[in-house]
Amino acid sequence: MKIAMVGTGYVGLVSGVCFSDFGHEVICVDKDPRKIEMLEKGQVPIFEPGLDTVMAKNVAAGRLSFTGDLAAAVDGADAVFIAVGTPTRRGDGHADLTYVMAAAEEIGRALTGYAVVVTKSTVPVGTNRQVAATVRAANPAAEFDVASNPEFLREGAAIDDFMRPDRVVVGVESERARGVMADIYRPLFLREFPVVYTDLESAEMIKYAANAFLATKITFINEMAMLCEKVGADIKAVSKGMGLDGRIGNKFLHAGPGYGGSCFPKDTQALARIGQDFASPCAITETVIAVNDRVKRRMIDKVVDLCGGSVNGKAITVLGVTFKPNTDDMREAPSLTIVPALVGGGARVRVVDPQGRREGGHLLPGVEWADDPYAAAEGADALVILTEWNEFRGLDLAQMARAMATPRIADLRNIYPVEDVRAAGFEAYVAVGRRGFG
Ligand code: NAD
């Protein structure tokens, strides 16, 4: 199969690289010339573990290439994937479809023979029909079908998620399009990963419903964590006891500083908006959004309390600012709420993150960046663990405590056992949903 992938972000680049690894001929397109320039030199513009190796292998095999010329990539393609961004539209929570529709129009103008125009971006119900209308309007003679193929990969584990998915969802309306999609995903199908074929609207709904459900699960446990703190229970024990129930499952039951990232915040907002538009409010999702906001802001109070009621003049070392480990993505990370509040409160904030500096450098003004957690903790009044990178999971706590002016930790990912922290010489410890001391 010959595939054009429009958009080389976290989803488009991983999908394009993995499709080429399936043996397809893939051309990845982006309108950002800097990205194409880097990719043509064999450099990966994002941090995603393992992506560089698979990319290099398929470029060398002659199956994968990059261009800024969408028309050239679309010419002769069996399928054209749209994997551009769908951020929150300013002001109303709706998904902004400007990039999707601009891509659809350009694709329409470029189509030369039959192709399936596949939307991989996360888009509201009805968008695939709008894509079809846009392609048709741009090129009334074009021979094409549309397909909805939402993506479920997680940043940080994207290659494995793409190669070994829990499921692939394909919304199609014609046998011809279904045949093309089946050929594209055949390597997964042969390895018995489930493919769910359905209609366009259901495929679009599956993505939002799945993300809203996951965001709800995280927020539920975060709300339970708040209650645990009041009643003297330990959220880790509660999560374990709940998660062993097969109907509940143990994933996404880790209490923390609130969900962030490029998907959950915008997708929950978009779903809430869709519910309002169709006069079928998604009350649970709306509440999840509000509670998550409260959870993030509570983290600021925790740090302020740890510092004795004010962070003014305090030196605070923050470990981790990306929205989760193993990515450089900072979109909607809890750190973007918490760190500016500390800076605004008069704290001197020093930040360590293995990959966050490139993005975080612009997004977190007024902080100092460091590479080594021990050096960054030198003379600090408080340590805040915000993202559970492996580098921060096995710290020599005694060495950290010795380096600090006042050894106090806010462990907002519940990494460390309270006894270990106490034994290492810390004088105060706060976590999420668990008893601390000091
Ligand atoms: P991104 O912002 O990282 O990448 C989008 C890319 O598209 C950018 O490089 C941009 O330059 C390019 N682009 C925009 N318009 C273009 C055009 N007309 N022609 C060519 N290139 C164009 O976005 P992302 O994180 O990869 O997300 C893409 C979509 O996938 C979104 O709808 C998102 O919700 C969804 N999604 C993301 C993830 C994730 O973990 N990031 C997971 C599942 C689904």
UniProtKB/TrEMBL annotation:
Q: Where is the UDP-glucose/GDP-mannose dehydrogenase C-terminal domain?
A: 317-418
User: Which residues are involved in binding NAD(+)?
Assistant: D30, K35, T86, T122, E155, K266, R331
- Provide the binding site for substrate: F152, L153, R154, E155, K207, F252, L253, H254, A255, G256, G260, K324
Q: Where do the coiled-coil regions begin and end?
A: none
UniProt-recorded Gene Ontology molecular function terms: NAD binding; UDP-glucose 6-dehydrogenase activity
- Catalytic machinery residues: C263 (nucleophile)
Q: Which GO terms describe its biological process?
A: polysaccharide biosynthetic process; UDP-glucuronate biosynthetic process
Catalyses: UDP-alpha-D-glucose + 2 NAD(+) + H2O = UDP-alpha-D-glucuronate + 2 NADH + 3 H(+)
Q: Which Gene3D superfamilies match?
A: Cytochrome c1, transmembrane anchor, C-terminal, NAD(P)-binding Rossmann-like Domain
Q: In which pathway is this protein known to take part?
A: Nucleotide-sugar biosynthesis; UDP-alpha-D-glucuronate biosynthesis; UDP-alpha-D-glucuronate from UDP-alpha-D-glucose: step 1/1
Cite the entry's keywords alphabetically.
Answer: NAD, Oxidoreductase
Matching Pfam families: UDPG_MGDP_dh, UDPG_MGDP_dh_C, UDPG_MGDP_dh_N
SMART domains on file:
UDPG_MGDP_dh_C
Q: What is its EC number?
A: 1.1.1.22
Q: Which InterPro entries match?
A: 6-PGluconate_DH-like_C_sf, NAD(P)-bd_dom_sf, UDP-Glc/GDP-Man, UDP-Glc/GDP-Man_DH_C, UDP-Glc/GDP-Man_DH_C_sf, UDP-Glc/GDP-Man_DH_dimer, UDP-Glc/GDP-Man_DH_N, UDPglc_DH_bac
Into which family does the record put it? Belongs to the UDP-glucose/GDP-mannose dehydrogenase family.
* Protein name stated in the entry: UDP-glucose 6-dehydrogenase
Lineage of the organism: Bacteria, Pseudomonadati, Pseudomonadota, Alphaproteobacteria, Rhodobacterales
